[in-house]
Structure formats: structure tokens, C-alpha cells
């Protein structure tokens, strides 16, 4: 490399190390305009673009480096790009080739296992993570990922062992502690699970939400840890989604018994429903100036069962026979406007918040099989995201769009009370139906949420909820075949 190019290279490389990616990229490009056979610069330009998440360019540039000089290090970088691109097939192929050169490379084994996991080949992923753990038994990520695989395979006991091994190495890792809690939950072990669940990431975000809204409020009072507050005011507030808050609202009466005054801030669409059901609790719907609020302790709502000392043998499943009711006036209005018929009335919903999980989204056309059942009337309870899907079928089938009529969960409850059955994906409607003791069939993906536990023959949270799980990932048709046969028996 000529002297001026070496100087340029050193400058570019220093920019790269310092994170000044734009300056580094400009200099790398200038060097290549003078020396386009410089494999090292092509490789670095590829790695830089991977840092910028421009993965197609990264793949192109590193492949160019390899065409000039088939250096194993360049192949290693290309494999990382394929992993980032979620091209598991090419990543697996490259890492297997690299392991022929360095069979005991922890990085190669770990990344190969990650590629197998990405591809859904959990058997090979497990085998390869174990090999990586033998090469380097002090990397917590190996055992954490093994735990995730066992979790996905419905083996929470094995998952917990792996998470505990990871925590022996990195005891303060919040994510591992959080997933340990979920594995205990799936095993229906809340004695152990709740203390780990306190490490959940959403607790921090819940606190941060309140800090952003009320920057001084949660700082002026301590978090409640279970001490006597019989003469105190307690402030609790939402975290996570609507379904979580509906599910955990069963503990509000217990919480109310512990304090002189309870203030609760749920998401605004829940306020009217909760005000009707819990008249001795003060609910905060709108922004209130900090100077006008006063409380002695605060607690995020998902921490309530832990602080109350609940578990699977002591009150965790309280309210399973119903703890929410609809306002009779709203029920009557919906009865007159939409439900005044003698048919078997079925409410459906197919999508929840896709920010969290796409696995729970169902194609609306999957419901079509049910629509030809005699003496039935179907009602769509889909709101917001996914409501437009109804347009695909509404001209061909007699579906009443209830979703467009509701403004909050009090309306939803009023409409829902008129139904004979709810059929929906794993979403907030399940929790509302269950809390109201309304028969509900919930459609679970193959990799389902912790709250439904391992024994899917029953629902521990709600007496009237029946669980249907996919037998293979993505196959909703088989579930609808089962439901069709079950519906025929009761109609």
C-alpha cells in the first residue's frame, strides 16, 4: 500500500474505531477508488455497513473481499452478516465450514447454534449450544439461549436449570431473571416465579412512564413493599397491555383492603369499566397536575400479587369465577340495537397488539368455516389495528361490526354480555370475557404465553375460558376444524 494510502487507511480505521462511521466510510470509499483490489478495506466497509444495518451492502462488500482473498476471517464476517439478515441457511453453511478449520471455536459454535435456533431446528441448536458450553462454560448467553429453547419446547424444568446456570455466571442479569420467572409461571409455580418476575423489563418501563408523565411523583414516595398502610394512600398504575391490567385487576379489592385510600391509573379506555366495578377506588383517567396529587406509597400493578404474598396455593387465581360486570344500561342498549334475535350469538376477534407478537395474529378468512353453522350470528369485536380486515369478507357474510361502535372497555363489556360465546386470539377480549364469566374459546399459537401454563385441558385464571392450541407452528386450520366440530355439538 502506497504511503498516502496507508495514511488514509489509518485515519479511516481510527474513525471507524471511534464510531465516526460516515467519515470512515468516505475514506474507505476513496481508498477503493484508487485500489479496488484491497480486500481488507472491502471487508471493513462491509462491517461498517453491518453496523449501520445496511445488510445487503455489507454482504456485497464482504463477498467482494472474499473474491479477492478467501481469508477465513472474511468468511466469519460474512456469516455474521447472514445471521443478522436472518438467512439461517447460509449462516449454517458458512459456520459449519469454518468449524472444519477451528473445531473448538466458541464463537463459531455459539453462532452456529443461534443460526439453528433461528431456523427452527431446536434439536441441532440444543446440541450445538451444549458443545459451545463445553468449550467455554463461563459464557452466560449459552445457557440463557438453551433455556429459551427448552422454554419453547414446553420443558420449563429444563429451562429453569439453564437459566439458573446462566445466573450463576451473571447473577444480576435482569433479562435472565425475568425469563426464569416466566418459566416458573408456565410450570404453575408462583411461589418462586413472582420474585424473579420483579426483574421484568416492563416494570422499569412502567416506572419510566410515570416518571416521564409525572417527573417528581414517584420520587417523593417509596415503592410499597408490603408494610402496614392501613392509614396510608397507595397509588398503583398500569404497565404492559390491556389484557395484563384486566387480568391483574382481580387483585384490586385485596389491595383496597390494605390501605386507607387506593388510587389507580389504568389505561384510559379501562377507567369507566373499573369505576363501575370498583366504586371504592379512585381512578385517574386524565393527566392530573402533580401538585394536586398526594399519596404515601406507589406500586406498579403487576407487582401486586408478589407484594401481597400470593401464590398458586394462596389467592393467585382469585376471581376465576368472575370479578367484572357490565353496566346494565349499556347491555340493554346493545341488546336493542344489535342483539335482539334468537340466534346463537358468537363474537370474534383475530388480532391484538402486533408490537409484541405476530404469532397471535389470525387470518380473518380462517373463521369462514364457522359461518355456515345454522342458527348463528357472528359479531366482530375487532378494533383499531386489524379492523380493516373485515372488509375482505363482510360483503359475502353476515357479520355485524361491533368494533366500530365501542369507545372503551365499558362499551365492549356491554356488548359482550349479550353474546353466547366468544372465539378469539390471545388478546384482551379473552380476559374481559373470562372476568365476566362469559364462555370464551381462545386460540393459542404453538409457542403460547406463560399464563396458560402447561395443562391446557383447563384454564386456571377463568372458569369459562377454553384453550385451543396449535399442534404445529402457523397451522390455524386444524384448530378451526376442531372448533367447528365442537360448535356443532352445542348449537
Structural summary, described in words:
The protein is α/β, with parallel strands linked by helices and 491 residues long. It folds into 3 domains: 3-172, Alpha Horseshoe (Serine Threonine Protein Phosphatase 5, Tetratricopeptide repeat), CATH 1.25.40; 204-308, Rossmann fold; 328-490, 3-Layer(aba) Sandwich (Rossmann fold), CATH 3.40.50.2000. The chain is built from 21 helices and 10 strands. It has helices at 3-18, 21-34, 39-51, 55-68, 72-84, 88-101, 106-119, 122-135, 140-152, 156-169, 174-186, 190-197, 201-213, 242-248, 252-258, 271-277, 304-308, 328-338, 409-416, 428-435, 477-490, and strands at residues 229-237, 259-265, 282-283, 297-300, 344-349, 376-380, 399-401, 421-425, 440-444, 465-469. Helix 11 runs antiparallel to helix 12 (190-197) and helix 14 (242-248) runs parallel beside helix 20. The radius of gyration is 28 Å and the shape is globular.
% residues in beta strands? 5-15%
What is the CATH C-level name of the largest domain? Mainly Alpha
Structural class: alpha/beta
**What Rg do the Cα atoms give?**
28 Å
Helix content: 40-55%
Write the CATH fold name of the largest domain. Serine Threonine Protein Phosphatase 5, Tetratricopeptide repeat
The CATH architecture assignment of the largest domain turns out to be Alpha Horseshoe
Enumerate the strands of the largest sheet in spatial order, edge to edge or round the barrel: 7-6-5-8-9-10
**Number of H/I helices:** 21
Low-confidence stretches: none
Overall shape: it is globular
- The domain tally reads 3
CA-to-CA gap between the ends? 82 Å
Largest sheet: 6 strands, parallel
Spell out the CATH superfamily of the largest domain: Tetratricopeptide repeat domain
Q: How many beta-strand segments?
A: 10
Average pLDDT across residues? Answer: 92
Amino acid at each position: 500500500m502506497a504511503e498516502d494510502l496507508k495514511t488514509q487507511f489509518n485515519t479511516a480505521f481510527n474513525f471507524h474505531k471511534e464510531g465516526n462511521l460516515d467519515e470512515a466510510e468516505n475514506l474507505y470509499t476513496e481508498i477503493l477508488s484508487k485500489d479496488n483490489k484491497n480486500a481488507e478495506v472491502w471487508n471493513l466497509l462491509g462491517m461498517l455497513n453491518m453496523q449501520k444495518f445496511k445488510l445487503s451492502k455489507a454482504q456485497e462488500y464482504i463477498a467482494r473481499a472474499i473474491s479477492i482473498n478467501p481469508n477465513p476471517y472474511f468468511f466469519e464476517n460474512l456469516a455474521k452478516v447472514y445471521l443478522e439478515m436472518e438467512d439461517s441457511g447460509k449462516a449454517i453453511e458458512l459456520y459449519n465450514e469454518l468449524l472444519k478449520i477451528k473445531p473448538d471455536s466458541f464463537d463459531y459454535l455459539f453462532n452456529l447454534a443461534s443460526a439453528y435456533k433461528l431456523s427452527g431446528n431446536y434439536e441441532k441448536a440444543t446440541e450445538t449450544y451444549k458443545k459451545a458450553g463445553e468449550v467455554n462454560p463461563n459464557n452466560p448467553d449459552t445457557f440463557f439461549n438453551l433455556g429459551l429453547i427448552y422454554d419453547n419446547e414446553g420443558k420449563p424444568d429444563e429451562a429453569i436449570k439453564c437459566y439458573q446456570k446462566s445466573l450463576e455466571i451473571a447473577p444480576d442479569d435482569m433479562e435472565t431473571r425475568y425469563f426464569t420467572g416466566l418459566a416458573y409461571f408456565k410450570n404453575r409455580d408462583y411461589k418462586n416465579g413472582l420474585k424473579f418476575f420483579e426483574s421484568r423489563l416492563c416494570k422499569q418501563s412502567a416506572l419510566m412512564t410515570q416518571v416521564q408523565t409525572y417527573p417528581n411523583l414517584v420520587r417523593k414516595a417509596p415503592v410499597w413493599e408490603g408494610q402496614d398502610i392501613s392509614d396510608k394512600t397507595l397509588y398503583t398504575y398500569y404497565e404492559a397491555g390491556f389484557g395484563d391490567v384486566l387480568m391483574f385487576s382481580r387483585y384490586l379489592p385485596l389491595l383496597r383492603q390494605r390501605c386507607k385510600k387506593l388510587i389507580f391509573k389504568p389505561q384510559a379506555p379501562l377507567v369507566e369499566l373499573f369505576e363501575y366495578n370498583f366504586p371504592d377506588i379512585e381512578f385517574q383517567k386524565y393527566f392530573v397536575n402533580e401538585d394536586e396529587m398526594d399519596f404515601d406509597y406507589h406500586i406498579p400493578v403487576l407487582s401486586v400479587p408478589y407484594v401481597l404474598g400470593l401464590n398458586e396455593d394462596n389467592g393467585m387465581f382469585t376471581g376465576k369465577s368472575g370479578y367484572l360486570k357490565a353496566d346494565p344500561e349499556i347491555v340493554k342498549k346493545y341488546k336493542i340495537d344489535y342483539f335482539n334475535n334468537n340466534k346463537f350469538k358468537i363474537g370474534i376477534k383475530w388480532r391484538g397488539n402486533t408490537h409484541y407478537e405476530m404469532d397471535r395474529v389470525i387470518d380473518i378468512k380462517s373463521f369462514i368455516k364457522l359461518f355456515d353453522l345454522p342458527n348463528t350470528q357472528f359479531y366482530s369485536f375487532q378494533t383499531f389495528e386489524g379492523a380493516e380486515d373485515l372488509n375482505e369478507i363482510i360483503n359475502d357474510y353476515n357479520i355485524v361490526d361491533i368494533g366500530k361502535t365501542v369507545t372503551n372497555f365499558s362499551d365492549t363489556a356491554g356488548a359482550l354480555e349479550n353474546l353466547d360465546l366468544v372465539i378469539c386470539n390471545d388478546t384482551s377480549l379473552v380476559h374481559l370475557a373470562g372476568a365476566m364469566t362469559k364462555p370464551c374459546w381462545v386460540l393459542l399459537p404453538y409457542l403460547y404465553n406463560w399464563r396458560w401454563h402447561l395443562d391446557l385441558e383447563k384454564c386456571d385464571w377463568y372458569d369459562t375460558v377454553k384453550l385451543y392450541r396449535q399442534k404445529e407452528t402457523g397451522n390455524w386450520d386444524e384448530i378451526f376444524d376442531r372448533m367447528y366440530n365442537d360448535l356443532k355439538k352445542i348449537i
